[in-house]
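ingest -> validate -> predict -> emit
validate: passed (alphabet ok, no gaps, 191 aa)
predict: started
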Amino acid sequence: MVFLTWEELITVYNHTFEQPYLSRTRDIFCFCCFTSLRYSDAAALKKTDIYDDAIHITTQKTNDKITIELNNYSRTILQRYADSETDKALPVISNQKMNVYIKEVCRQCGINEKLTDIYYIGGKKIEETKEKWQMVGTHSGRRTFICNALMLGIAPNVVMKWTGHSDYKSMQPYIDIADEAKKTAMDLFNK
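emit:
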């Protein structure tokens, strides 16, 4: 489960790119990281879905009606595109291009922690170690939001209201990551 730490997220958010398409990609990805929206919901987001300082949508995947309050980061990103001549809130491109460009965004930002991907082919265990930027995709935005929200101490039931998760079973992998991160952080006192 690939997600950005808070420090990595802020590095990406603050990075200046020479290529405008990478700046737009960064904005869309960070918007997902700060709101919990899936790529499909960010792509469909209209300016009229945003009122009373919140996003009000019916999710594409689950058809859930959710309200996500804006924070300073998501509000700032929306303001960058408020004057565009389209009804879309963000300049979203295809999922395929987003996945390619997000990797370049993270590569340029130095998101290069080594991660090992383990999978099986025909019962044979395959392990591949890659840099984190190579494994980031559009869904990493949603994961980033959930993991960081839990690590910031936001209660799982509150996070579930924003994400539309209906039960703790689906949140458990994220809770486990947050618990492991807390343990790792506490271990820093042992040095």
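The mean pLDDT is 91.
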